[in-house]
Amino acid sequence: MAQYPSNRAASGRAVRGDAEQRTRNRVLGAVLEHGPVSAAELGEMLSITPAAVRRHLDALTRDGVVEVKRVATSGTGAGRPARRYVLTSRGQSSIGDDYLDIARTALHRLAELAGPGAVEDFAEERFGAMERRYQPVVDAVGDDVAARSRALAEALTRDGFVASAAEVASRVPLPAHMASVQLCQGHCPVQQLAAEFPAFCDTETAVFSRLLGVDVRRLSTLAGGGHVCTTHIPTGRGANPPVAGTPDHHADDTPDASEFLPDERP
């Protein structure tokens, strides 16, 4: 008789533990489906108290399956960046990476059957749709490259890329024509595929260049192991759509990435 209450207590703890795990899995699944997403948004969609949501998010962050991305506010960018949650690569694998294996196998098979150029054509088609959607949004703000960069960042964020565009400062004085913006993306839905197929990153960079009307440079990518995808955008020369195959006559004007001090990154 003395052991019975102890067994009941252990059973109660097990039930509560199972319920906690089910809720945690729901939170993880919601981050996968809706990320980048805030804790408040998760609480509303799952009908969970804010305290419970944050407890589960903290546990998932400690487990390395969820991470926080800071998103710059739109408009002036004033104030503290908003916190948004996304899955890490480990988190995606913990849910199941069958989709990734299928996509990877399909792309390798496509390259075998039709040649490496077929993967590039696929990337062009994928990012071409993005370019067509973003073009009117970017054009609506006029010819100022910095304003176009901010409009592009806002469009990317709406599509889940957790992007921001911030003017950068330099440790050394720079002439006015070397003013620039850094476009940072904290999330990439094809990160692991891009690590094997660089055409995805190269094509996206070319799309940014066409949308902004200047020759942009990639300083880092998530696919290459960077903390964020960072694109250097010169703003001091004005928009002038580059011609394919034409060398950048200002290439030597682009300082080394270490010279930049971004005002804010996600």
Topology:
Layout: H1 4-34, H2 39-46, H3 50-62, E1 66-71, E2 82-87, H4 89-95, H5 98-114, H6 116-139, H7 145-158, E3 163-170, E4 180-185, H8 191-196, H9 199-212, E5 217-220, E6 229-234, E7 260-262
Antiparallel strand pairs: 1-2, 3-4, 3-7, 4-6, 5-6
What does this structure look like?
This protein has 266 residues and is an alpha+beta fold. It has two domains: 75 residues, Winged helix-like DNA-binding domain superfamily/Winged helix DNA-binding domain (Arc Repressor Mutant, subunit A, Orthogonal Bundle); 143 residues, no CATH class. It is built from nine helices and seven strands, in the order αααββααααββααβββ. The strands form two sheets. The chain has a five-stranded antiparallel sheet.
* Poorly predicted runs of 5 or more residues: 242-266
Mean pLDDT: 78
| Order of H and E elements | HHHEEHHHHEEHHEEE
User: What is the strand content?
Assistant: 5-15%
- Report on the biggest sheet: 5 strands, antiparallel
Return Rg in Å.
Answer: 22 Å
Our measurement of the CA-to-CA distance between the termini, rounded to an integer number of angstroms, reads: 59 Å
User: Number of helical segments?
Assistant: 9
How many E-type strands? 7
In the sheet with the most strands, the strands line up as: 5-6-4-3-7
In total, how many domains does the architecture comprise? 2
Looking at the structure, what is the overall shape? globular
Q: Helix coverage percent of residues?
A: 40-55%
The secondary structure category is alpha+beta
Organism: Sinomonas terricola
Protein name: Winged helix-turn-helix transcriptional regulator
Pfam family, one: HTH_24
Region (Disordered): 1-21, 231-266
